[in-house]
Amino acid sequence: MHLLSKSTYIRGRQCPKALWLYKHRRELMPPVDAAQQAVFDTGHQVGLLAQQLFPGGVDCSPETPYDFGPAIAATQAAIARGERIIYEAAFLHEGVLAALDILVHDADGWKAYEVKSSTGVKDTNIHDVALQCHVIEGNGIPLVDVSIVHLNNAYVRRGALDLQQLFAITRIKDAVDQERLSVPARIATLKQVLVGEEPAVPIGPHCSAPFTCDFMAHCWAHVPGHGSVFEFSNARGKEWELYARGIHLLTDIPADETLTSKQRLQVEVARSGRPQVDRPALRRWLGELRYPLFHFDFETVMPAVPLFDGTRPYQQLPFQYSVHVQRAPGAEPQHREHLADATGDPRETLTLALIRDLEEEGDVLAYNASFEKQRLQELARDLPTHAPALQRIIARLKDLHTPFKAGWYVAPAMNGRTSIKVVLPALVPELSYADLAVQEGGTASLRFQQLFTGNYPGDVAQLRQDLMAYCGRDTYAMVKVLEVLGRVVEGE
Ligand code: SF4
After folding, report:
1. CA distance 146 to 168
2. Same domain, 284 and 230
3. What is the pLDDT of residue 151?
């Protein structure tokens, strides 16, 4: 019944080819993964909470996302009988479907509210709300005001949720009116795209902005999976400049090309196929580590809606850590760990265990330590009785990312990246995450949040084992990476 919707319009606004592929080659799209599903679920949960800011409305949600006919009819009927608040108000205008989260009629007239689970207004919000307003006004509903309802990240929960504080309402009518000037022409263009041949759009920066396109596996199939110019660290447009000149591989870059020193190093590594090592810098850094050495890693959850007193929207809450302790260089590590029981605020018991497990002497080594430092600072802020002990831990932090970030060890298999997930297989290929049920932090976070909210559908005891195995592997990986760096310095 409709040619375009808000989501297809936004897709086509980013790239007409993406719209065409979505309509004609849907099978090329990857399935929705657990992380995307979690984002959708969060959006739904936040949307329902925001409705309570405007209580007593009539809900016109469709029964299924594939049939908006009854929702459109319900919206028209609600307006006709004088309803003042309509949730999921659905409209069709010239083949374009739009469903608005909350439509309100008060003494001033009709007002549109779109709910976002973000903590502010983004340009893309203006784009999609402009389309919605075009469709709504096309139905003869003049809008006197238009706003985004979003989460307020300054809100700190105290007791029951205070919805007036949890949400902020930002007026965007002026920006929407400006954007609307281009909406009719865009709609006309996109309708033409749908009935035409597949548009010949080359890949470009638009493939990942504002959203990562669903069709990259299709359009980027000709780009080499390894050693391409898109692996440049800190590329700042250099990759596209080279690509436009037909240079797709790092090894094809001319010797006289202007590059940063890190990019030059990356090209040399790709050409030689061997690691580049700055032994003096590595030796100095390794020599400054103070033992006992505590290889340390946090896992966190970030609930959009604060679950506990004293927390804010999207605050990172540590729920788990792993520590491998080495008493001397090369010594067999001892393992210590903590995983919260998911029955309440995890921070107090986790902090007590952490202070005990990290002892008082020796460096605390993390990978990308600024993350751990920030979490420790937040714990010190929120649990002031533990602040002195936490500050002493912060003062002992060192970063295992440093040698890789600084370029003191660059291996071809790292492909210009330096996360532990890339560094580990490059340095310790026999140790990976492939045998684990939980293989990355996003999944760990998602699963633990499901435990918190009672929505985990599987075996809870098994999940707890899987989470501990994952976090433990992270810090054991650090032990093994450090071991390799030690051997490299010795020239082995
Ligand atoms: S991958 Fe890039 S070129 Fe291909 S459809 Fe998506 S945005 Fe367009």
Report:
1. 14
2. no
3. 98
pLDDT tens, residue by residue, 405-449:
999 999 999 988 999 989 999 999 999 888 999 998 999 999 999
Q: How far is the CA of 201 from the centre of ligand 1 (A)?
A: 7
Amino acid found at 126: I
Report if residue 209 sits inside a domain.
no
**Closest to 18 in 3D by CA, of 275, 210, 239:** 210
Q: Is 203 in the pocket of ligand 1 (CB under 6 A)?
A: yes
For residue 85 the two structure tokens come to 């608040």
d(CA 13, ligand 1 centre) in Å: 11
Joined together, the tokens standing for residue 46 give: 């936040």
Could you read off the pLDDT of 340-369 as tens digits, one per residue? 998 899 999 999 999 999 999 999 999 999
Do 286 and 249 lie in a common domain? no
Q: Decide: 95 and 2 in contact? Cβ < 8 Å.
A: yes
Residue 264 structural domain: 223-274
Task: Give the pLDDT score at 201.
Answer: 98
User: Do residues 340 and 482 share a domain?
Assistant: yes
What gap in Å lies between CA 202 and CA 479, rounded to an integer?
A: 44
Structure confidence at residue 482 (pLDDT):
97
CB 230 less than 6 A from any atom of ligand 1: no
Domain containing residue 160: CATH number = 3.90.320
At 395 the three-state DSSP class reads helix
Look at residue 292 and tell me if it is in a domain.
Answer: yes
Cβ–ligand 1 distance for 38 under 6 Å, the answer: no
CB neighbourhood size of 323 (10 A): 24
Beta-bridge mates of residue 111? 104, 145
Q: Is the CB of 22 under 6 A from ligand 1?
A: no
The finding on whether 269 has its CB within 6 A of some atom of ligand 1 is no
Looking at the fold, whether 268 and 284 belong to one and the same domain comes out as no
CATH number (domain holding residue 473) = 3.30.420.10
- Residues 288 and 265 both lie in one domain: no
Q: Same domain, yes or no, for 342 and 476? A: yes
Q: Does 388 fall in a domain?
A: yes
Any domain includes 171: yes
Same domain, 142 and 31: yes
The low-confidence residues of the chain, meaning pLDDT below 50, are none
How many CA within 13 A on the CB side of residue 433? Answer: 24
Q: 231 C-alpha vs ligand 1 centroid, how far in Å?
A: 18
Residues 259 and 133 in one domain: no
Assess whether the C-beta atom of 355 lies below 6 angstroms from ligand 1. no
**pLDDT at residue number 368:** 97
Total count of domains within the chain: 3
Atom of ligand 1 minimally distant from the CA of 16: 8
Q: Which atom of ligand 1 is the closest one to the Cα of 18?
A: 5
